[in-house]
Specification:
Length: 427
């Protein structure tokens, strides 16, 4: 017999007390209503069969509630071929009291065991204020980092040091200096460079920050160095504290391989009061399938922002990452659109981005974004300082004129980059 108690009308619950998850499901089931009801129980109070301790009172307070199941297209009678796959969207409301204010238990609740129940994808999550207010969110975000760097309006320039790994701290320091001298606002370790014998983290901090001060003395420009502290959770925290104690003015973490909860631990820690850059690696394992996983705007947008990322590298459709323009824009919106009282997170548009992508980046993202560049700085025909300067020239030109236009001829570094790699979109 069908159990109607698992289903409620949206008007029947107080959304301040529930997390509402939206899913896509592809299946061959002829009994989809019972299947979804089972998922709501699985992720909250019970299992595949009723157990004695699952009282009506307990279920009423803690059980997941199905808000709706919608087939796409919206058949009103059985399709002619009933053995074909069926596509559904459904929503389950989970009591926020089951979860507390933390991302790890949120993910466990909304997608834990049911992630193994077929072709199912978590496509959105609506969070109540009480849940959001318990999370740290960005401690600096867009406005805070603008204040730190003294850059009130324009987009920022981030450089990923290349070669990515295998270089010594001394070699990296020279690469740091050459890029920063050209106008780079942020210089980051590559995600594959950790704390190694050939490049100890603290030695990098010492040498890179020395060159950051050198650049400031020579040009008046402040530079953030996001040192990679990725490791097992306890080591990650201790490395972040050590890095800050030794002068690091920012940190970076591969948050999906360490676990997203590490962002909140870093953001909340009283001895780590510097901006946090979160790196995107490993995300494709979670979002790439259209039929399974978690949508990219949740992984790279809402969840990372609320967990504490001030800056987040995101995949762009311009370079080497396979992501649609629509998904890319949804990530950016999730990082910057209002979420109660939380600060906005900087999106870093990278992945083979070149100077010629700037017009499209402005068109898509406005002014509150970070250009993420590695090869287009170090492989510039006039050298890495010129490569960074070419980006800054392009940014300043678009800020002033709204486009590249004929003014490019007055900027030799920018012109050389555009001659080398061209313009994406309309310049």
């Amino acid at each position: 017999m069908f159990d109607f108690d698992q289903y409620v009308q949206p008007e029947g619950i107080d959304f301040d007390d529930y997390v509402v998850a939206t899913y896509f499901l592809r299946s061959y089931s002829r009994d989809i209503l019972n299947m979804v009801a089972t998922m709501a129980i699985e992720q909250t109070t019970g299992t595949w069969i009723k157990v004695p301790g699952e009282t009506k009172e307990l279920s009423g307070k803690h059980q997941g509630k199905v808000l709706g199941v919608w087939e796409v297209p919206d058949f009103e009678r059985e399709p002619l071929k009933t053995d074909n796959e069926r596509n559904h969207i459904f929503q389950i409301a989970y009591p926020v009291q089951n979860i507390g204010s933390q991302i790890p238990m949120l993910l466990t609740t909304v997608f834990g065991n049911i992630s193994m129940m077929g072709d199912i994808k978590l496509i959105d999550v609506a969070l109540p204020r009480k849940f959001v207010e318990g999370l740290p969110g960005p401690q600096f975000g867009v406005s805070g980092i603008r204040t730190l760097l003294g850059v009130p309006e324009r987009p920022l320039l981030n450089n990923m040091i290349k070669p990515s790994t295998g270089i010594t701290p001394e070699q990296g320091a020279e690469l740091f200096y050459s890029a920063a001298l050209g106008g780079t606002d942020i210089v980051k370790d590559d995600e594959v460079l950790g704390d190694t014998d050939f490049s100890p983290m603290l030695k990098r901090v010492k040498l890179y920050m020395k060159n950051a001060e050198r650049v400031y003395q020579e040009t008046g420009q402040k530079v953030l160095y996001t040192v990679n502290v990725t490791d097992e959770p306890e080591r990650c925290l201790s490395k972040a504290i050590e890095a800050v104690n030794h002068g690091a003015n920012a940190i970076m973490v591969n948050y999906l391989t360490t676990g997203i909860g590490i962002l909140s631990s870093l953001a909340r820690h009283p001895k780590i009061r510097v901006p946090i850059l979160a790196h995107l690696d490993f995300g494709g394992a979670l979002y790439a399938s259209p039929y399974h996983g978690i949508s990219s705007h949740l992984i790279y947008g809402k969840f990372a922002r609320l967990a504490g990322a001030d800056i987040l590298t995101i995949p762009t459709p311009y370079g080497k990452f396979a992501i649609s323009h629509e998904k890319y824009m949804k990530i950016a919106m999730a990082l910057r659109n209002p979420i109660f009282n939380k600060e906005r997170t900087w999106p870093v548009a990278g992945g083979a981005v070149k100077q010629g992508h700037l017009p499209q980046l402005f068109k898509d993202l406005g002014k509150d974004f970070v250009v993420g560049a590695g090869g287009a700085i170090y492989a510039h025909p006039m050298g890495p300082t010129a490569g960074a300067r070419a980006f800054r020239q392009g940014i300043d030109l678009i800020m002033k004129e709204g486009k590249f236009g004929d003014w490019v001829k007055d900027y030799p570094e920018l012109k050389a980059a555009l001659d080398q790699w061209g313009i994406y979109g309309r310049g």
